[in-house]
């Protein structure tokens, strides 16, 4: 019997009213995998993350097709108690905004301990000790004093690391990290990613890293999935995609990065801008900005061969 | 010829608990005409305070900022207003820096009106010209800021900054909030304009790869002080300060998986209570006894291989650099 992947996103489509936000997206993650989901603002990467945790309920967004399966089970067919048991426990998420994700009226230590009390039946005292250890792991100085602080007394970077400590509290099997380090300084970012890397080696935790930072994906992920206008346009092993990008968008995106250009020269910028949801072209979404258009591009949407390795392009770079 | 000479500039804030926070501590540097100086450092290092102190948007405690040889900090109101025509700034947040009630035309025209430059017709011609120069069509003038994307708003902010034909442009994280593909468009626009108009620039960013791309020289800041400054090539290829090395090593490279990464441990110290001795000693992988006792001065880096000129241009504040011959 073939083993089920830890996470299987299968033909996921999400709509906002009549406009598509995510279109027919399929991805798989196995234990110990670290997959980078990259794209620019509005490409649908954060909505994909929320769908995985079935967190769209309070938003105007609706899953219109497809399924998200965790160890073979569709999250939406589970009852509330079962979902509760998975979320925050087996599947954890780090959100983008550390300012709004913490409760302002509870102390940091109690908020971390609460996760352990709910999911693992820890006592308050055990939770408190675990909170100190967790804060230490995410590189925070003097965790003993920090646990009795309130969120407003912490800097943005500290709050983000509290969020990360909470997400890691129950040693999840799957971590969804939506721009986890965007608010952090590069030296702290390096510290956090080394920690995530260590955890996946030690505990087999799988990570879905959602980011706009291509360098971060190159350094820490095995595989990368590139999104544009709600679709995957290229997916494959990092080495392959970064060294020989096949999709014209991936290729252009990589060329535009300052670090890969001779200082002082003009950057090969992508002209125009990302079309907003509801205004996506009928053929290939990248066609209006692409430099390598063939007749087919405006007419028909190119297919993506597989969710593991593929390019959604009629005229890929060879 | 130096356009700007900053000496021992110190800016302090009083924290809520009565302590003083020296956000900027005895910072000195020169900026030549037509030169781009990149200022890089992490949050709390004082780089934005530096930007605002140089333009006297906030009051400094000590030091001097000589613009064309005249100290901006000693100017009276009229002198300052005149000097500010030549010194402009573009901020990070293109959402907060444009008045939501004004049309784009009004926003770009305002500096011309404030300084009483040209007739209404001249001003209109100038606004048309500026919009075209930053890559926007003339018909955007009647619209409001909320109708534009982040990249377009930054173009508008740049047009406004250029309205008075400044000699000094300060870009404070001007491309940091933008998406990768838009970021490169704005970087190109800024570097084109800089070269074309011969602007001197202070380009402030936390992103060393962007700084590297646009700057002639780079200054690295840590807890309110410059810890290393030098020509971009020398500083990036042969960094001297352990903090600069860690910063360069922490940039996730796109080229290939990095074999060795210098990962710093510990927190950035509280800027209102900086460590004794070298401020970096609490996180430095190469710390030794001397670092806890005495703060290293910024000194010229001595190397055999480089010309005298480059040696003088590269300085680092680290005891390790002092002891090496």
Helix percentage range of chain B:
25-40%
Given helix and strand content, the structural type of chain A is: alpha/beta
Helical percentage of chain A = 25-40%
- Can you count the helices of chain B? 12
Q: Profile the largest sheet of chain B.
A: 8 strands, mixed
Strand portion of chain B, in percent? 15-25%
Task: Show unreliable segments of chain A.
Answer: none
Mean pLDDT, all residues of chain A: 90
Q: Judging from the principal axes of the Cα atoms, what is the shape of chain B?
A: globular
> In angstroms, what separates the terminal alpha carbons of chain A?
37 Å
Distance N to C terminus of chain B: 31 Å
Textual characterization of the structure:
The complex is a heterodimer of chains A (318) and B (325). Chain A has helices spanning 45-52, 80-86, 98-101, 108-120, 124-137, 143-146, 156-168, 186-203, 214-220, 238-243, 248-255, 296-299; strands spanning 7-16, 19-29, 34-38, 61-70, 73-74, 91-94, 174-178, 206-211, 223-228, 231-237, 310-311. The two termini of chain A are 37 Å apart. Chain A is α/β, with parallel strands linked by helices. In chain A, helix 5 (124-137) packs across helix 7. In chain A, a hairpin with a 2-residue loop joins strand 1 (7-16) and strand 2 (19-29). Chain A contains twelve helices and eleven strands. Chain A has a seven-stranded mixed β-sheet, sandwiched between helices. An eight-stranded mixed β-sheet of chain B has the order 6-7-8-3-9-10-12-11, with helices on both faces. In chain B, strands 2-1-4-5 form a four-stranded antiparallel β-sheet. The model of chain B has no long low-confidence stretch (mean pLDDT 91). Chain B has helices spanning 47-54, 77-84, 104-114, 120-133, 150-162, 180-197, 208-214, 232-237, 242-250, 289-293, 308-313, 319-323, and strands at 2-14, 20-32, 36-40, 62-67, 70-71, 87-90, 168-172, 200-205, 217-222, 225-231, 299-300, 315-316. Chain B contains twelve helices and twelve strands. Chain B is globular and about 65 Å long. Chain B is α/β, with parallel strands linked by helices. The interface between A and B is large, with 44 and 46 residues.
């Amino acid at each position: 019997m073939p083993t089920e992947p830890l996470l299987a996103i299968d033909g996921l489509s999400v709509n906002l009213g009549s406009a598509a936000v995510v279109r027919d997206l399929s991805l798989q993650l196995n234990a110990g995998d670290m997959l980078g989901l990259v794209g620019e603002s509005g490409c649908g990467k954060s909505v994909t993350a929320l769908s995985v945790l079935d967190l769209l309920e309070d938003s105007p967004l609706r899953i219109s097709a497809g399924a998200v399966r965790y160890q073979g089970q569709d999250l939406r067919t589970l009852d509330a108690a079962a979902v509760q048991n998975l979320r925050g426990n087996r599947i954890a998420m780090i959100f983008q905004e550390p300012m709004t994700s913490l409760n302002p009226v509870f102390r940091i230590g109690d908020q971390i301990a609460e996760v352990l009390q709910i999911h693992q039946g820890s006592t308050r005292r055990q939770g408190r000790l675990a909170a100190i250890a967790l804060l230490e792991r995410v590189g925070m100085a003097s965790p003993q004093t920090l646990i009795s602080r309130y969120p407003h007394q912490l800097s943005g970077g500290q709050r983000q690391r509290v969020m990360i400590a909470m997400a890691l509290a129950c040693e999840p099997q799957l971590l969804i990290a939506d721009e986890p380090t965007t608010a952090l300084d590069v030296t702290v970012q390096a510290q956090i990613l080394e920690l995530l890397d260590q955890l996946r080696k030690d505990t087999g935790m799988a990570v879905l890293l959602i980011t706009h930072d291509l360098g971060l994906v190159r350094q820490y992920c095995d595989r990368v999935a590139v999104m544009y206008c709600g679709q995957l346009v290229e997916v494959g092993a990092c080495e392959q995609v970064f060294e020989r990008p096949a999709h014209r968008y991936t290729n252009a995106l990589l060329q535009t990065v300052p670090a890969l250009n001779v200082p002082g020269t003009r950057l090969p910028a992508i002209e125009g801008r990302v079309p907003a949801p509801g205004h996506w072209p009928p053929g290939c979404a990248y066609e209006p900005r692409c430099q390598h258009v063939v007749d087919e591009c405006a007419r028909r949407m190119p297919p993506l061969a597989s969710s593991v390795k593929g390019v959604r392009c009629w005229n890929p770079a060879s | 010829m130096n356009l700007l000479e900053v000496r021992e500039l110190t800016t302090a804030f009083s924290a809520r608990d009565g302590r003083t926070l020296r956000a900027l501590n005895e910072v000195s540097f020169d900026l030549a005409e037509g030169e781009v100086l990149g200022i890089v450092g992490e949050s709390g290092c004082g780089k934005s305070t530096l930007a605002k102190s140089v333009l006297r948007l906030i009051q400094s405690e000590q030091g001097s900022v000589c613009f064309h040889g005249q100290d901006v900090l000693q100017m009276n109101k009229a002198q300052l207003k005149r000097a500010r025509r030549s010194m402009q700034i573009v901020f990070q947040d293109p959402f907060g820096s444009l008045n939501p009630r004004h049309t784009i035309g009004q926003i770009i025209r305002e500096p011309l009106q404030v300084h009483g430059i040209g007739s209404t017709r001249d001003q209109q011609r100038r606004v048309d010209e500026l919009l075209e120069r930053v890559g926007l069509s003339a018909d955007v003038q009647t619209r409001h800021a909320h109708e534009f994307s982040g990249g377009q708003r930054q173009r508008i902010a740049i047009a406004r900054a250029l309205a008075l034909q400044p000699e000094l442009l300060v870009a404070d994280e001007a491309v940091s909030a933008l998406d990768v593909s838009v970021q490169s468009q704005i970087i190109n626009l800024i570097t084109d304009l800089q070269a074309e108009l011969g602007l001197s620039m202070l380009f402030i960013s936390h992103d060393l790869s962007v700084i590297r791309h646009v700057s002639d020289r780079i200054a690295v800041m840590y807890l309110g002080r410059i810890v290393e400054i030098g020509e971009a090539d020398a500083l990036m290829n042969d960094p001297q300060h352990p903090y600069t090395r860690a910063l360069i090593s922490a940039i996730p490279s796109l080229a290939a998986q990095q074999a060795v990464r210098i990962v710093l441990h510990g927190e950035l110290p509280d800027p209102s209570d900086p460590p004794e001795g070298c401020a970096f000693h609490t996180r430095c992988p190469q710390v030794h006894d001397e670092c806890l006792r005495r703060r290293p001065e910024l000194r010229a880096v001595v190397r055999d291989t480089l010309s005298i000129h480059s040696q003088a241009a590269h300085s680092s504040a680290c005891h390790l650099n002092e002891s090496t011959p």
